Amino acid sequence: MGQRIEHVDSIRAVAVLLMVMVHAAATWGPSPSSQPSILVYIVSGLGGLAAPLFVTVFGWGCFHSSSTPPQRYLRAGFLLLSQLAINVTAPHLFDVFTPGVLTLFAVLILTQPLWVSPFKNFHERKNIILWSSISTTLIVVYFASGLQGSNQWDERIEVSTLAKWFSHLLLTGTYPLFPWLLFAILGSWIATQEKTGLTFPVTKGAVTSLLTGVLFCIVTLLYSEQNDIDWAKPKGDAILTFFPANAPFLIAALTGVAILWMLIQTVHSALLNPLGKISLSVYLLHFIPIGLFHSIDENNDWSFEASLFTVLIYTLIWIPIAMLWLRLAPKVNAEYALRTLTKKLVK
């Protein structure tokens, strides 16, 4: 694309802030004995939308990308190495070779023509392509849930062989290509909708779909309360689970991402734009303090208030850091380095 769209930068910023919050909460979380509250559900809900929003805005960018195959290969390699660096700096969260969200981005770049081309070549059928993708993914996830592997964290990050790495990359890892490709497809679909300055026009069909998704979330939440079942958990027994991503989670996440996108595009503020411009750099860098200071809460005995304060401060501090970063060193970031590499090394 030529000119940057400001609210998309804001969306990128929100996505990376939510990712920072999730990883900070996983490191400096409260004691298991802390009493849950409505605030816990709000924070957990937003955290659950971090990766879906991150992947969706990445899919949006892929649709607008004009990269050549060699450039895509180079960027994919950069992301694979970046994931390795992240794993090394956060050993309490990942094994060294655990595929993660940046590995997913690398695979999405390599497979980009397969899932972007249908929207470009059959623009008039974009809605059919989207809903066919959603329906197919939900059916496979629901009726063949075993394909996604274990719901135990240690098993989803353990990589002992090359075959296990590919398995985690495609199906059984933390962010496998299936079913997370669905959010990139949503991003590509959003990219086809642009008109009147909005990337996600508020149409009757969009509102109807969102209301249906919200109704689904309300019904499942009420069901969980009446039957004393956890509504949402990262893993284990719950109606919505993240590892692996089950069908109810995918429905709720698609709904949440669409709502966040529509809300953010209506807020005309440049506050988050600097962070959005270097979202990859911040994502890479935020793991370093987490890795260095994860041991200060090894016993996981912080109060809910102390944990919440620490997590929120660590998350929000990246907003002014990004502003100063771009002002003082605008060319010292991963985005600039990657753009320079692709221009100079690949013609």
What does this entry look like structurally?
α1 runs antiparallel to α3 (50-64), α1 runs parallel beside α14 (279-285) and α7 runs antiparallel to α10. The longest helix has 23 residues, at 204-226. The mean pLDDT is 89. The chain has a two-stranded parallel sheet. It has one domain. The chain is an all-alpha fold and 347 residues long. The protein has 18 helices and 2 strands.
Summarize the model shown.
The chain has helices spanning 6-27, 38-48, 50-64, 69-89, 101-110, 112-121, 126-143, 153-157, 162-172, 177-191, 204-226, 247-264, 273-277, 279-285, 287-293, 304-316, 318-328, 334-345; strands at 232-233, 240-241. The chain is an all-alpha fold.
What is the topological layout?
Blueprint: H1 6-27, H2 38-48, H3 50-64, H4 69-89, H5 101-110, H6 112-121, H7 126-143, H8 153-157, H9 162-172, H10 177-191, H11 204-226, E1 232-233, E2 240-241, H12 247-264, H13 273-277, H14 279-285, H15 287-293, H16 304-316, H17 318-328, H18 334-345
Parallel strand pairs: 1-2
User: What is the global morphology?
Assistant: globular
What structural category characterises the helix and strand content? mainly alpha
How much helical structure, as a percent, in the residues?
55-70%
Global Rg: 20 Å
Distance between the termini: 18 Å
Biggest sheet, spatial arrangement of strands: 1-2
Q: Stretches where pLDDT falls below 50 for ≥5 residues?
A: none
Strand % is under 5%
Number of beta strands: 2
Average residue-wise pLDDT = 89
* Largest β sheet strand count, sense and barrel closure: 2 strands, parallel
Count of DSSP helices? 18
What string gives the helices and strands in order? HHHHHHHHHHHEEHHHHHHH
Question: What is the domain tally?
Answer: 1
